[in-house]
Amino acid sequence: SAQKDSNDDTEDVSLFDADEEVPTRSRKSKIRHPVASFFHLFFRVTAIVVYLLCELISSSFIACMVSIILLLSCDFWAVKNVTGRLMVGLRWWNQVDDDGKSHWVFEARKASAQRKKVSSEAESRIFWLGLITCPIIWVIFAFSALFSFKVKWLAVVTMGVVLQGANLYGYIRCKVGSRTNLTSMATSYLGRQFLRQAVAKDDQAAS
Q1: Three-state SS for 106?
Q2: How would DSSP label each residue in 14-34?
Q3: How many Å apart are CA 72 and CA 87, to the nearest integer?
Q4: Closest Cα to residue 83, out of 131, 134, 27, 40?
């Protein structure tokens, strides 16, 4: 069943069309999708390397810019449509209803009792490490370009931040559910931290 978020017309549904059978022997450290794992990192890492070495690779700014944008576009498509589904059982996209209303859909594949591990731990680490680290690097590039007055590169680094940040946001939504769940998780975490501090202060006062 689908649960709709009334605030932004999003819904969380199960990834029923990707519920392929996972062999029992495919467990923790085994990489079951080596090609997907490779391309999950290849495009985004290559884009960063080209950006860093562009002045050594080519004297043409246009050639470097087009190469980086192509790599970022390929990465966005691959991560959004392929690697997320295969490596961690998550997927997100925009859908238009019959009445023309657009809304975002976030999918998370449910693990059955017989196969609690939908994806291997190694693939999950590779996926989330690449997904989180690279947008942070592009944000650093954006500040660097801004403060060093490399105005011509701002469009490129902005593209990197937007495309990779969109995938990061989409998969976080898939992982934790709707925005209300995100808020409740943050509230719960802050509440636990406050309670721990209060208990620690009481213990110190008692001693």
Answers
A1: strand
A2: E-GGG-----TT--TT--S-H
A3: 20
A4: 40
* Banded pLDDT at 97 (limits 50, 70, 90): confident
Contact status, residue 102 vs residue 9, Cβ threshold 8 Å: yes
Give the start-to-end residue ranges of the domains of the chain.
Answer: 34-108+117-191
Whether residue 112 contacts residue 22, with contact meaning beta carbons closer than 8 Å, is answered with: no
Which has the higher per-residue pLDDT, 13 or 171? 171
- Better pLDDT: 112 or 166: 166
Q: What is the torsion angle, in degrees rounded to the nearest 10, for the CA atoms of residue 121, residue 191, residue 174 and residue 97? A: 170
Q: Euclidean distance between the first and final Cα of the chain, in Å?
A: 53
* pLDDT per position as a tens digit, 129-176: 999 999 999 999 999 999 988 888 999 999 999 999 999 999 998 888
pTM of the full structure: 0.69
* Whether the Cβ atoms of residue 79 and residue 131 lie closer than 8 Å to each other: yes
CB 105 within 8 A of CB 11: yes
Q: Residue 56 carries which side chain, given as an amino acid letter?
A: L
What confidence tier does 120 reach under pLDDT thresholds 50, 70, 90? Answer: confident
Burial of 26 (0-12, 13-18, 19+ CB in 10 A): middle
d(CA 128, CA 38): 14
